[in-house]
Amino acid sequence: MYFVVVLLLFRTLSMVNSETWSLSYIYTALSKPVELPGIHEFTAMGLLNDKQIDYYDSVAKKKIPKQDWMREKLPADYWEKGTQSRKSKEQWFKVNVNILMDRMRHNNTDVHILQWKHGCEIDKQPDDTLKFIKGTDQYSYDGDDFLAFDDATMQWVAPVDQALPTKRKWDGVQILNQYTKGYLEKECVDWLSKFMAYGDKEFRRADSPPKVYAFAKKAKTAGHVRLTCMATGFYPKDVLMYIKKNGVQLTKQDGVQSDGVLPNDDETYQIRMSVQIPEADKETYECFVNHTTLKEPIWVKWDGKCCDCSQVTVVVIVAVVLVVLIVALVTSLLVLWKKGKICAGNTGALPPTEIQGSLNGNGNGAAILSMPVTTDGASSTSSDSGQGSKERLEREAMLTNEAIGE
Length: 406
Known about the structure:
This protein is α+β, with helices and mostly antiparallel strands. It is 32% helix and 27% strand. The chain has helices at residues 2-16, 68-73, 76-103, 164-171, 174-198, 200-203, 311-338, 352-359, 391-396, and strands at 19-30, 42-48, 51-57, 64-65, 113-124, 130-141, 144-150, 155-157, 211-218, 224-234, 240-245, 248-249, 262-263, 269-278, 285-290, 298-301. The longest helix has 28 residues, at 76-103. Residues 1-18 form the signal peptide.
């Protein structure tokens, strides 16, 4: 227990005394155009701390800054070289998304997607030095992992059999793997450091403490609820959160789920953790949150209530009451009609014989009903940071037709 307390304290102090930054580039290619606004066959964007800093698409065919400081600090030739780099990658993706479709035995009836993400993440220490945390270089096809670079072993990892030919080809070009490792650990970090300095004022905002909530909603599994801990509105991004049961921290093995820290629209952040528990569970559940803005961690105890568990019952009761009332009303009207208390003639309506005639208007005993007709009228570069210094190596290791033949 003492070791656990010391470890928790160490992690908390590390979080308080450092600041995480990330730089990443995401390229997305579609197998064919789709008629949707803002969706293009090829797009590429750079992200600093999940905020877009540059953009390119297959329509405009020009790399443009998305932050004023990028426009002001970087020279014209940076954007010109970046545009050429993006155009080159657009052609690369156009060729390779088709190759992968063949390899996956997919036709062009549906839209297929090839995506590449690469970048780096660092910790900025109190003395302003940057500590490399991890690098990312991975490909996905139709949303599933296809190929990823292992920075530690300098090898490509193929999670699916269809990626094995590419893995073998790329691992066979060791200079490419050496460059990829160097880019992630050095070149990417250098550009990240430069962008941090350029956008320092824009990325500096007042620190904001988290607001913490604990609530439960009905789970899909009968007799269970999903207990959620949410912290939102905090800045900077780094935060610690746990769900505790009777003072004991729950883990993934206990079913705890989370999408991690996500951005809010106001440039603050949020995080949610949830776990499924029996609806009748009377144990003590608490949300633990720690953040650099807090003098001490926040503990929020779940009150044991479920937000929407009773809604189904209420709806059913209301529906039953309405049905009973409607049946009673109809029964009353029929009784009155039979007793002659209600007569169509009293309201100026046609006599019963004429009403029957209109219903059987074609004389064949078939009622002709005119129904209204409605119509639906709605009816990075590897080196964007290096401006393409990886292009030659990429071409050498490209997914060529002969490289991926079955």
